[in-house]
Amino acid sequence: MIVPLATCSVLLTHRHIPDPGTQLFHCPEGCFWRWHPDHALNAPPYLPEQEVLGDLVHAPCPTTRAQALRYVALLDCLPGVGPTRHHWHGYMADDPRAVAHLSPADRAAWMLAVQGEAVGRYLDEVIVHCRRQAEANRSNPGYMRFRTSATSDPAVQAHEAAGLRASQEGVAHVNAALGLERRVRAARNDGDEAAGLECFKELHRLLGVLDAMVDDPVRAVPEAWHARGMVTRLLQRLPEAERCFLEAARGAPFVADPWMELTRVRSEQGRLELAEESARRAVAVDQGSARSWANLASVLHQRGRGAEALAAAERSLAIDPADPVARHVMQARRST
Fold it and tell me: According to CATH, what is the number of the domain 253-336?
């Protein structure tokens, strides 16, 4: 939305909030995902054309216009010939620093515009958008594209577009591996050797596809390594799976899932000290993840550190009272 001021115009946008139905992680009830810059790596204000690294983070859905304003970015409309260009200084529209560089007249015009009905209607649309995404997130299988950047450089955008296509392909393979994992578990529980053999063939077929991806520098995205780790784990090639998850974590160090998978394969190899290290990295990345705390509780339980295991399990259950791993740890520790 373009907002005319006294001597210039600014752009309000919520394009950093993915559309409903976009492939995302599971999200806490009533929350939505949005792209947010990593201030530890790149603190605002940002320069024009500066590449800004960030991640998708979740937040409670706004219920009022004032709340919606904090999730809307405010960009300068830059003068020039041709298509309008914009510059984001790195601040949300509710932050006074977003307009601190404007003239007093433009700042006054901005304050009036924020209270006006046109901006109000736009903020209502943002509220609806966030709610629809939150509703759609209920059916997400649990994986998404990892770290992204914000830039207007055409060459960088083309490279990122190729990376995005590879990320989307990797996500599809992760979901395929998840489906195969469920089928392998069912075949094992039912003693169905024919179904197990079919899963084995499909795992090798998928592994061939993923080998081609990770051998291609453009397509060797964290999601592809993550999917390959899942496939090799299901094939009981645990050292290879560990290497894949390490590659995924190296490419997406601020995403918890590769660290959680590392915890799993290291535990299965009996390497509990390293498993605890991975579990703690997952918790550090996402302290709001019940699964991260539950994995840490499980490792601590295996290492015989009962009090710490109980504390981690309690943190997990405070987030998700139904987490099966945390509940198992609680029952096991209380029975000892």
Answer: 1.25.40.10
